[in-house]
């Protein structure tokens, strides 16, 4: 298993980010869905559980999704594995400011593959050493990577960097935030951090280390691109209530059902990530 902790810095308040995250997940799902690939929402409902995070009773929203991902998989997976390996199931327990996401491939890899992402959203600049209270044996293997949405070094310059989602040029009409400078996290407020601990497990003799590194290789790009969009779409979601967002999510779920069956493949692909 390969464990990395990504710390994503954003010029937002934690209370704002909840709405921005939900809105942007819905928008990004639409942008990634079409031509037989993308996101299919199977279930979304309220939950309460004391089994998701040790020592905590959580309440929030449970979402079950199916990802159709052939063109988005690393090329080596496309070459080595059958079609049944190109589908991922995602279960997400969103008990904001904590969230847990589990990705599996029950159709092929079964117990030999999973990705677990635990996230905590905190009003700081990524300075906590162990925000998610990881066990000592996990800390020994954890690598910390700080991601600043100003930094575009993880992005594909041809497909990911656009003026409308570039915090270096974007300025919010409603909040006055932006454009960001290289030292924005030290000179402006608010500042928050998404602490994301990602555990990738892929058991396949001879390929485990390589595949786990490939999985983690996609996350700096994915997290940077998504969180740049969260910030740069702020004027679209800042005035929305949680009730507005839930209605938008329901409409998006219905649209995705139609969208996945038509048009062309959209969004990020493995080929673009490997450039």
TrEMBL record:
GO MF terms, alphabetically ordered: phosphatidylcholine binding; phosphatidylcholine transporter activity; phosphatidylinositol binding; phosphatidylinositol transfer activity
Location of the Phosphatidylinositol transfer protein N-terminal domain: 1-253
Any one cellular-component term (Gene Ontology): cytoplasm
Coiled-coil annotated spans: none
SUPFAM superfamilies linked: Bet v1-like (SSF55961)
Highest rank taxon of the organism: Eukaryota
InterPro entries noted in UniProt: PI_transfer, PI_transfer_N, START-like_dom_sf
Protein name: Phosphatidylinositol transfer protein
């Amino acid at each position: 298993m390969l464990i990395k902790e990504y710390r994503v810095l954003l010029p937002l308040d934690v209370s704002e980010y909840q709405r921005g995250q939900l809105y942007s997940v819905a928008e990004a799902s639409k942008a990634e869905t079409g031509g037989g690939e993308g996101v299919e929402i199977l279930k979304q409902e309220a939950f309460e559980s004391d089994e998701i995070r040790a020592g905590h009773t959580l309440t929030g929203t449970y979402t079950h999704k199916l990802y159709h991902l052939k063109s988005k998989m690393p090329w080596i997976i496309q070459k080595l594995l059958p079609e049944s390996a190109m589908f991922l199931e995602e279960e997400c327990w969103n008990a904001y400011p904590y969230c847990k996401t589990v990705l599996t491939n029950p159709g092929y890899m079964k117990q030999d593959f999973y990705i677990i992402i635990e996230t905590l959203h905190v009003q700081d600049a990524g300075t906590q050493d162990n925000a998610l209270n990881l066990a000592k044996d996990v800390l020994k293997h954890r690598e910390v990577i700080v991601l600043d949405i100003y930094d575009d070094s993880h992005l594909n310059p041809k497909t990911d960097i656009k003026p409308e989602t570039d915090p270096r040029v974007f300025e919010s009409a409603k909040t006055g935030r932006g454009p960001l400078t290289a030292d924005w996290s030290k000179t402006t407020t608010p500042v928050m951090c998404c602490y994301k601990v990602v555990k990738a497990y892929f058991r396949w003799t001879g390929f485990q280390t390589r595949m786990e590194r490939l999985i983690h290789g996609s996350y700096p790009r994915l997290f940077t691109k998504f969180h740049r969009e969260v910030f740069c779409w702020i004027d679209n979601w800042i005035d929305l209530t949680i009730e507005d967002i839930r209605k938008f999510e329901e409409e998006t779920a219905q649209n995705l059902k139609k969208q996945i069956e038509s048009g062309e493949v959209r969004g990020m692909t493995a080929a673009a990530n490997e450039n």
